[in-house]
Amino acid sequence: MPRYLVTGAAGFIGSNFVDHLLARPQGEHVVGLDCLSYAGRMENLAAALTHDAFTFVEGDINDTSLVAALLEEHDIGIIVHFAAESHVDRSISGPAPFIHANINGTHALLEAARAAWRAGDGRWREGCRFHHVSTDEVYGSLGEDDPAFSESTPYAPNSPYAASKAASDHLVRAWAHTFDLPVTISNCSNNYGPRQYPEKLLPLTILNAVHGKRLPIYGKGTNIRDWLHVDDHCRGIDLILTKGRPGETYNIGTGNEWRNVDLVNLLCGLIDDLFAARGDLKERYPRAPAAHGQKTKDLIAFVSDRPGHDLRYGINAEKIRALGYGARHPFKAGLKASVAWYLDNQDWWAPLLAD
Ligand SMILES: NC(=O)c1ccc[n+]([C@@H]2O[C@H](COP(=O)([O-])OP(=O)(O)OC[C@H]3O[C@@H](n4cnc5c(N)ncnc54)[C@H](O)[C@@H]3O)[C@@H](O)[C@H]2O)c1
User: What is the pTM of this model?
Assistant: First the structure.
């Protein structure tokens, strides 16, 4: 039975992936590794920590002796690599941590896997796999009428974040090509769902709205992103691990493209509807316009655009669909449930706003 190392396990997607693995009947052992940066939180692993099959280790993926010891002690056969600096705005104000975590960290992990999994006869340990979690941002920006990104779209990363992820993808690809390490890569569209750090568009919008603060939208709000529920991202990675071919890259997405301004307006409407339906929200969030029957969308404020802001990302997911992939969360229902999660989990986000 495979034993997993999940890096970045205390972050948004990593923690959801750990929960996904632990919910399966197979009962595989899962080790979560995370350095607990500002985005990594033990609260995200509250459910996982109640499982005997889960072990958490605090540490940096660049710590080669720690990673080597973990691979050996826990007999790890599958690495699912989420650990990264992930916020584009932070990469613009300070790129160095992105080079350390995303490029150097991926290199360190690849080398640890190469050392641990080499079998005596020059082949690799049976069933081992290094899965690298990446983003559609490596492909650069699409025009409004361009065909969506496919796996053969040339890389053209525009932000320091995207460039660091592109570099890490190239390292993973090279370790497969040169050393024949069994790797897969996934490039996914924008995720939404529970436990996303409140610097990102969806939680930022929801939490600002309940505090009566302005809802900033870059530029004219015409930038387009392709949105996927975090559970559907996790299911896609799992499918690639079970049915994907080593050495291959798979895009994950559903072609669910939204202009930022339309998405924020949709969120505002969902917040208004939830406040209208639930009296408890009016009491808990008295500063929200929706608590007084006013429209949340009146808080929208257009702000100076992000430097180098990509116009559009869109995913052509034909290749993973051929493995049997389909998203399970209808977008508006998934978004409504996510808004309700943030409104009902003040204990999760309040300490972050205090910071
Ligand atoms: N959020 C999205 O919409 C999205 C979409 C596609 C791909 N991705 C990719 O998915 C992965 C996870 O993204 P996320 O949104 O969950 O990010 P996140 O910022 O919420 O979590 C990243 C986690 O990695 C940990 N980490 C950072 N540097 C580390 C290091 N050197 N050693 C150990 N742990 C470290 C952090 O502590 C944090 O827990 C990233 O690789 C990101 O590029 C994200």
Answer: 0.97
